[in-house]
Amino acid sequence: MSKIKIGLPSKGRLKDESLAFLKSKNLEVVNSFGERNYFFNIKNDNEIDGIFLHAREIIERINDGTLDIGISGLDLLKELPDVYSENVKIFKKLSFGYADLVVAIPKDWLDVQNMADLEEVSFEFREKYGRRMRVATKYPNLTESFFLSKGVSQFRVVPSLGATESYPFTGSSELITDITSTGSTLKANNLRIVNDGTILKSSACIFVSKKIEKNKFLNRLK
Amino acid sequence: MKEGLEKKKLKEDLSKKILSNFKKNKFNFTDLDLLIDTNLLTERSGEQFKKFTLTYKDLFGKEISLRPDLTVSTALKYIQEKKNKEEKYCYYGSAYRLDKEGDLKVFDQIGCEIINSNNNKSENILINSILEPLSKIKNLEVILGDVGLFKILVESLELPARWKLRLVKNFSREEYFEDMLKRLETNYDLDQKAIKLDTKRLQDLEKLDQNVMIGGRTVFDIVKRFNKKIKDPRDNYKGKKNVKIIRDFFNINTSIQKAESVISSFFSKNKLNNLSINNYLKKISRINKEIGKKYSINFKTNFGRNTDYYTGTVFLAFVTKNSKIIELARGGEYNGLLRTLGYKKDISAIGGAINLNELINL
Q1: Residue B21 shares a structural domain with residue B116
Q2: What is this structure's pTM?
C-alpha cells in the first residue's frame, strides 16, 4: 500500500496550532531534513509522507490527488468552485483558526446598518455616479454570492491581494469583505461590520481526498 | 447526421420566410456583433450577469462575452451607429448562455426590434410581426403582461420611499423579492438601538465639511439619508396590508378582453388612486383591438419578471405539448436599456424574438 501524503500549513499561527493538534493525537512532526526543508515525517510512523505548503495550496493538492489529507481553512475551500467540494471532503472541523468573513463599511456610514441599507445605497450610488459600488476582497466568489443573496446587485468586485482594509480610504473601493477574528484590525482602520454582514464562519479543518475517506489512519485524527 | 442536415435546411428555409415577412413590415436586416464588452453588461445588470455568459479575457486583459442576448446586441448597434431617429431592425443569429451546470446552450433566434419610436402603435406592430409567422400553429397561446403596471401599483401604496425603491428595483429577482415581502410584512428593517447610538455620532458628522468624501460617499449624502431614514414612518405603515395587495395583484390572470375592467376594479377595490393607470389601460385596449381576436391571449400581472431590462409590455407565445410548455417567442418593452448601455437618454424600445430551435421541432 502506498504511503499517505499529508499537507500542513507552512507558516504562522495556523502552522503552530496544526502541529500542536497532531501532537495531542500522539503524532509528532519531525523535520529530519532541517528547518528550511518543506518535507517532514511523523515520528515512529513510516506510512506518512508530509509537506508544508501554503494553506490555499493544500486544498488545490488534495483536489488534484497529490495529497490525501491536509489542514487548511474552511474559508479557502468555500471560495473555490463547487467542484472542489466534490473532491475535497471536510473530515473534521478543528477548534482553532476561527475567523469570520464579513462585510465592512467605513464606520461613518451612519445610515447603513444592514445589508438592506447597502442595497438601497448601492442603487443611489449608481444613480449619482453612473457606476457600481466597488467591494474589495480576497474572496470574490463568496462575496458575490452573499451580496446577491441579500439583494445587493449593484456592485463590482475588486480583487485584493492584501491590506484590503485600506481600500475604501485610498479610493480603490467603497467597502470591503475580509476575514476577521476579533474585529480589531477593521476597527483600527475605521471600518465597521454590517449587522447582518457575516458571510461565513470559518475555522481550520482537516480535509481529505474523497479517495481516502475510509482510511484507518483517519481514526487517529478523530 | 442526415437528420441534423435536414433540420439545418429546415431552419434556413424557415428563417428566410420569417425574415422576408419582417422586411415586408419595414424592418431592416442587420448583422449583429458576436462579442460584447463584458463591462457594458455588468455595469447594467450587475456581477450576476457573468454567471450565465461565456466570458474570457483578451490579450490586453479586457473581458469580452459571447452575446447572451440579441436585444442587447441590437441596442448596442443603435448606439454605435449614432442613430437618433426611429429604427426598425430585424436579425437572425445565435445567443449563447451558460446553464446552471455551466454548460453552454446555444439559442438560434430570429427577431425584430423598434427603437426610438414615437408611434404609440409600435408595440402592436412589433407583437404582430413576431406572432404572424406563428399564427398557423395549432393551440398557440399568448401571455401578455406589463412590468410598468407593477411600478404604478407600488407608487400607489402607502409605503416609505426606501421600500418602494426596493420593491421596484428587485421586481425581476423573484426569490429575493419573496424574502423582501416577508420583511415588509413584519416591518423589520431598522435597528432602533443602533439608530440611538448613531444619532450621537451624527452631530460630529454634521460639523464636518459636507463635501468631504468618506469611502466614496459625501458626508452630505450620508447625513441626508440617515435623517430621512429615521424620520420615515415607523410602525404606522401597514406592511401586512400592503403585502396582501401586492400578492393579490400578482394573482391577476385574465383574458385580454377582461383585463381592463379587472385591473380597474382591483385598483378601486383597494382604494389605490393613480391616474397614470389609464395610460396602461389604453395600451392594453389598443393591443386587444388589434390582435385580441386573432390569438388566445391571457393577461398576467406576474409575467415578465425574469428579464431585468423590461419596463413595459411583455409577451410570450407558447404551445403545450405533453403538459410541457414550449416557448416559441417572447419579447417586451425596454425603455431604459439604451441609456444604461451608454445612450445619452432614455428612449422607447421594444423587441421580440422567435426561438427557431423549438419551432422546427414542432
Answers
A1: yes
A2: 0.76
- pLDDT at position B346 over 80: yes
Q: What is the pLDDT of residue B232?
A: 61
Q: Verify that B124 and B18 share a domain, yes or no.
A: yes
- Yes or no, beta carbons of B216 and A149 under 8 Å apart: no
Residue B43 is assigned to a structural domain of this protein: no
Q: Which of A109, A110, A125, A167 should we substitute to test contact with B (largest number of B Cβ atoms within 10 Å)?
A: A110
What pLDDT, on a 0 to 100 scale, did the predictor assign at position B192? 65
Q: For residue range B24-68, what is the model confidence (pLDDT) as tens digits? A: 999 999 999 999 988 887 766 666 667 788 988 888 888 899 998
Structural domain including B215 reads 192-231
Q: Give the CATH number, domain containing residue B84.
A: 3.30.930.10
**B236 in any annotated domain:** no
Helices (H) and strands (E) in chain B, counts: 14, 14
Residues B218, B96 share a domain: no
C-alpha atoms less than 13 angstroms from C-alpha of B180 in its C-beta half-sphere: 28
- The C-alpha atoms of residue B284 and residue B281 are separated, in whole angstroms, by 5
pLDDT at B153: 94
Q: How many domains does chain B have?
A: 2
CB contact under 8 A, B214 and A106: yes
Above 70 in pLDDT, residue B214? Answer: yes
Same domain, B133 and B256: yes
Whether B189 sits inside 8 A of A116 (CB atoms) is yes
Distance from CA of B192 to the nearest CA of A (A): 10
Q: Which residue has the higher pLDDT, A131 or B109?
A: B109
Q: E-assigned strands of chain B? A: 28-29, 35-37, 55-57, 63-66, 87-98, 104-115, 141-146, 213-214, 217-218, 253-255, 296-300, 313-321, 324-333, 349-355
Q: Residue B140: inside a domain, yes or no?
A: yes
Residue A109 contacts B where some CB pair is shorter than 8 Å = yes
